[in-house]
Amino acid sequence: MNPGAPFVAAMVQMRTGLMPGPSFAQAAELIREAARQGADYVQTPEVSNMMQLNRAALFEHLAVQDDDASLKAYRDLARELKIHLHVGSLALRATPERAVNRSFLLSPNGDILASYDKIHMFDIDLGNGESYRESANYQPGDSAVITDLPWGRLGMTICYDVRFPSLYRALAEAGASFLAVPSAFTKKTGEAHWHTLLRARAIENGCFVFAAAQAGLHENKRETFGHSLIVDPWGVVLADGGTDVGVTLATIDPTKVQAVRKNIPSLQHGRRFGITDTSDATNRLQAVRGSA
């Protein structure tokens, strides 16, 4: 492990389809391009194997981890290219009735260094006809995951997790210098919140944030936001993938993490506190005012 050495990180921006085979072919071409450009660490988006809204179709093509053809292909590719390959997530079968949304960090030897199951389920009505119930098909994870890269520690998360800052604070306090947020943000929520949320997670924790994203109108008619981002610990966007399928790269200087945390040592200043609830007094005051 050489935590001070610079390295090249690449975010692969995809438009995942309905079937695992064509989706992997798309990813493989982009991962190879990233490797040709010198990437040491390459990340793909959430659900890199397939994006199915129909439950029957989803479960028809799900496989358990040990039998999943996409995972085997990604492991072979990491081994071939000699890179750290972070498969943002794959939809896998967990039980006969539930899938799991699982992220994998693969070594240059193709070994699985770590895996993480998405904790927070995206159950939401967006008010424009879009409605998502991830918990209808997926079971949530229950553990945060931190793992080692040659250049520092990586905290693994997925998409909707980004709206829960306590997860990222826990990862940073456990030693993470890099936070991974592979995603498939909707166009509507992405336009409103994507850049702000990712920059906030970087700034408040003094970490680099790596966020490969899905982009464009998919075969299932879902539209995702794109804009794969690499953000430094000061909140500066080092790379933005825009809205097209492609590869976004940046050179990462891990020493910047400690430099930023030295300037703003908020990780050392956190305190536990109670909450004083004055709602009863407030209600009494309002009642007095209302009777005047």
Overview of this structure, please?
With 292 residues, this protein is α/β, with parallel strands linked by helices. It contains 8 helices and 16 strands. The longest helix is centred in the C-terminal third of the chain and has 19 residues, at 187-205. The radius of gyration is 20 Å and the shape is globular. The model has no long low-confidence stretch (mean pLDDT 93).
How many distinct helices? Answer: 8
The main sheet comes to: 6 strands, mixed
How far is it from the N-terminal to the C-terminal residue, by CA? Answer: 71 Å
CATH architecture: 4-Layer Sandwich
- Taken as a percent bin, the fraction of beta residues is 25-35%
Tally of structural domains: 1
Order of helices and strands: EHEHHEEEEEEEHEHEEEEEEHHH
Helix content: 25-40%
CATH topology: Nitrilase/N-carbamoyl-D-aminoacid amidohydrolase
Cα-atom Rg, whole angstroms? Answer: 20 Å
The side-by-side strand order for the widest beta sheet comes to: 5-4-3-2-1-16
The CATH homologous superfamily is called Carbon-nitrogen hydrolase
Report the average pLDDT across residues.
93
- Which CATH class applies here? Alpha Beta
The dominant shape is: globular
Low-confidence stretches: none
The strand count comes to 16
Coarse structural class:
alpha/beta
